[in-house]
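Write out structure tokens for protein disulfide-isomerase.
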Amino acid sequence: LQLGALDATVHQSTASRFGIQGFPTIKYFAPGSSDSDAEDYNGGRTSADIVEYALAKVAENMPAPEVIEALSQDVVDDACKEKQLCIVAVLPHILDCQSKCRNDYLKVLKDSAEKYKKSAWGWIWTEAGKQPQLEEAFGMGGFGYPAMAALNSRKMKFAMLKGSFGATGINEFLRDLSYGKGQTAPMRGAEFPKILTVDAWDGKDGEMVVEEEIDVSDVDLDEEEKPKEKTEL
């Protein structure tokens, strides 16, 4: 955020160009805007009022946090440990939800991250079964995907999404969190779960692994010895 000051009594032509008629006048120029797009500030005149307005504009124009795949301990630590909350999504296995399905879920997550970017939360996702200790810590394991939890890594407490994994359900969940509402539970073990190092999703559909049939037609099998006939004495 850049700040500038202008003495309108000295630079009268510039003051006229921006329609400045009274003093003091504060105008805001959004990134990439032109002179004609200047926004008048109509808030309070104390330093606290102006700083609050400026910080709100910074948050408004900052990029949304990235929704990161949980690929290693370092990746998750960087995304979550210094944040007030970390939003963790576990998506269905790729064989249960192919690339279009997964990308639809990721879009919902990215849209939610954009909507709540002012909160500066961390956002991570993983595929069901890839990070078993993470799922176990939230009590997610084995069923109910997609699932979402919000973790406070400082207090080692989390809240689970109870509603639908869609724009409306996630918005209600995150809105309550932003107001300090919602039921929380202590993290199992009272520590951040261990994150395995895994390969990133390649963006493609999943394929069933087909076991190759073994051709045994050219394998020589010894004939079983026939039992010898008993000779009576």
